[in-house]
Amino acid sequence: MRHIISVVFQNQFNAIPRIVGLFSGRGYNISAISFGEGEEPGLARATITSEGDEQIIEQIAKQLHKLIDVVKVVDLTFEPHVERSLALIKVTALPSNRPEIMQMVDIFRANIIDLSAKTMTIEVTGKEDKVNAIISMLEQFGIREIARTGCVALKREYHGVSSE
Amino acid sequence: MSKNTRSQSESSKGAEAQSMTGSEILIQALLDMGVDTIFGYPGGKVIGIYDVLYRTPKMKHILVRHEQGATHAADGYARVTGKPGIVMVTSGPGATNTVTGIATAYMDSVPMIVFSGQVASNMIGNDAFQEADIIGITRPITKHSYLIRDTNHIATVVSEAYHIAATGRPGPVVVDLPSDVLAGTAVYKKSVGVDIRGYNPTYKGHSKQIVKAAKIISEAKKPLLYVGGGVIAGNASESLRQLAMKGNIPVTTTLLGLGAFPEDHPLSLGMLGMHGTWYGNMAIQECDVLVAVGARFDDRITGKLSTFSKNSLKIHIDIDPACISKNVAVNVPIVGDAREILTKLTEKVEKGNTEEWLNIIAAWKKNHPLKYCPGKEKILPQCVIEKIAAATRHEAIVVTDVGQNQMWSAQYYGFKHPRSLLSSGGLGTMGYGLPAAIGAKIASPQREVFCITGDGGFQMNIQELTTAVKYKVPVRVAILNNGYLGMVRQWQELFFGQRYSQTVLDDGNPDFMKLAEGYGAVGMRIENNDEIDTALVAAMKEKNRPVIMEFIINREENVFPMVPPAASIEDMLELTD
To answer: Are B130 and B176 within 8 A, CB to CB?
Structure first.
């Protein structure tokens, strides 16, 4: 089962290698990790996507918590939360295909951020299944390169009321 | 350094308020933390530190002969005192030579700080001479590590490293010191405390959980205390004894827990696990309430997990929340300090109705005692351990190496006090015995220290004999010489059709007596049973030099009982007469 774990940590020089090393060293699966500066200077937040059963995920959370630099560990999977990931997709776009691609981009509320004689680079943000969907729709045109982030997520504050 | 780490510090008066070099600050900071002994070996990148040590007689430096020896000696020192052992090595190979010792300390939760020199900051990552990414190499085997980039941070890091190594679940910390940071200057401010945002071990157990546990224990008909190294690290032996006696609860310990409960007490079941007592393992399988304290349900203890203590309610007291329900799901977890929680539990527990259970156990002890076949021509190692125990009245510090010598020591000595058995349990590091014994004796010169080792392990850090001779450390080294890599040979005998592949050592072993003489130690070779007692008396008279006692033992003696690999712990192999 896919879990999203949010880790708040003091961004000392060795913190990220320790967090990632924990996963590889103990044989835990890590599908994606995304991290950046957090809400306070010196504090960073990493969002880790991992596959595993309840027991493994509980161990992961406990081992993360043991790390000296880690301040807080939250398993967001079962809490109400918002999640987003971003993808940049470079597709082969010959002039004849451009209108159809642009239509798709429009439907998915994505953006075209680069254009050349033969290619188009599309930026899309959303939940992972939306990003997966547009990628599979674009496959027919020939995808040259994809750069994806892992998902980032935060807990929802107003339960049951979604502005999404 | 993050600005969020508030380190409260104050300017000291007089000499400490002036500008000092990084090396001077390092040594002063250690002195101010109460450190008086460093185990180390110099080198190019730490010459500056050693120059300061030259004029700091207050800081005792033990010069070893291999950096691995420094780590094991610091480990022995730490297990005896409870204070972090301090190691000082140079960059590159000096640092990489500490890896095994750090891993040994990590697996057994031993407090230690390893200070390693490093190339200058602008050379890091350049494949410079004697450069090694020791932080990267030791990341998975350290509790935490630091690479200091600013001379002003040295004092803070030293006090943080000490705090992290010594508190919560103790462990090794590595501090990497680039040479320019050591040469730079700063004003030294004595640290008066640490505040690390992400590090707040829980000491006080949850009161509701304690009440719940007390009720379960009081109502149990067949309770059992399963005790690990955490009780010794937490200085909780006395509280454990109170609980066991009040509740009339039998106690079995892991290898690292030996000595937490006196083995001559009627409630003691000795050690459990792969080479534990028959009755210790059976008690685990038959108990109805299992109280685990400071133990981690390691595979050497549990055997096959699916059949481990199936019918018991489990209470687990541990300072490390990650240990709880890691291998074995428990019913009542209590995170916190062993001594505190055991004391509170004892207050709330009522003496249970355990007489019937204790009678069953007494019958087990009678019918399945630890035993060996006496009357062999060659000396029996179990007999050697028993005689050492008698000669030292069960009061010595026993430091073992790894393998059969380790298991026989654990089975036959009979420990009565905590911090008496020093053994590499988690990592099982051969070569641990001699240097650790040296560290232990330096830590407690008034106690008798015996190192029990084998002809294999003794040679792995043999160079430390020089250290013992130089510092007049009178450890007694009992080599149980069977000319084999004993434990592996036992497995080859039992499970690999006696194909002793690469485990025969005696067609290349040196003359240990000539070696002892060459090093300046006392040597004794004992080949007959009737020589053992007199040899021990003579050995224990020696006050200034290490004594190497080579016992020529029965070659194919095996350790029993044994839980075979992947077996359920009640399916022990026993000695067949």
So the answer is: no
- pLDDT at position A160, please? 60
Are B199 and A68 within 8 A, CB to CB?
A: yes
| Nearest CB to A70 within list B147, B198, B326 | B198
The whole-number average pLDDT for the span A84-96 is 95
- Residues A69, A47: Cα–Cα separation, whole Å: 15
**What Cα–Cα distance (Å) separates residue B62 from each residue in A90, B38, B68, B71?**
63, 6, 13, 11
Which chain B residues are within 8 Å of A66, Cβ to Cβ?
Answer: 320-322
Q: Give Cβ neighbours of residue A53 (< 8 Å, ≥ 6 apart).
A: A1
Residues B477 and B526 sit within 8 Å (Cβ to Cβ): no
C-beta of residue A90 within 8 angstroms of C-beta of residue A123: no
Yes or no: say if B494 and B560 are a contact pair by the CB < 8 Å rule. Answer: no
State which residue of chain B sits closest to A71, comparing Cα positions: B198
pLDDT at residue B7, as a whole number: 43
- Is the pTM here over 0.90, yes or no? yes
Q: Write out the CATH class of domain B207-367.
A: alpha beta
- DSSP for chain A, written as a single string: -EEEEEEEEE--TTHHHHHHHHHHHTT----EEEEEE-SSTTEEEEEEEEE--HHHHHHHHHHHHHSTTEEEEEE-TTS-EEEEEEEEEEEE--TTTHHHHHHHHHHTT-EEEEE-SSEEEEEEEE-HHHHHHHHHHHGGG-EEEEEEPPPEEEE-SSTT----
The verdict on residue A159 lying in a domain is no
Q: Identify the DSSP state of B289.
A: E
**Please, where in chain B does CATH 3.40.50.970 lie?**
14-187, 381-552
Neighbour tally for B266: CB within 10 Å: 9
| pLDDT tens by residue, A106-163 | 999 999 999 999 999 999 999 999 999 999 999 999 999 999 999 999 999 976 666 6
Mean pLDDT per 10-residue run, chain B (577 residues)? 44 60 98 97 98 98 98 98 98 98 98 98 96 97 97 97 98 98 96 91 96 97 98 98 97 98 97 97 97 96 95 97 91 97 96 94 96 90 98 98 98 98 98 98 98 98 98 98 96 96 94 97 97 97 98 96 95 89
B14-187: which CATH topology? Rossmann fold (3.40.50)
Mean of pLDDT values over A88-111: 95
Q: CB A40 to CB B3 under 8 A?
A: no
Domain count, chain A: 2
Kindly state whether residues A130 and A95 are assigned to the same domain: yes
Q: Which domain holds residue A95?
A: 81-154
Q: A44 and A89 in one domain?
A: no
CATH assignment of the domain containing A51: 3.30.70.260
How far does A60 lie from chain B, in Å, by closest CA? 9
Give CATH 3.40.50.1220 domain extents, chain B: 207-367
Model pLDDT for residues B301-322, shown as the tens digit of each residue: 999 999 999 999 999 999 999 9
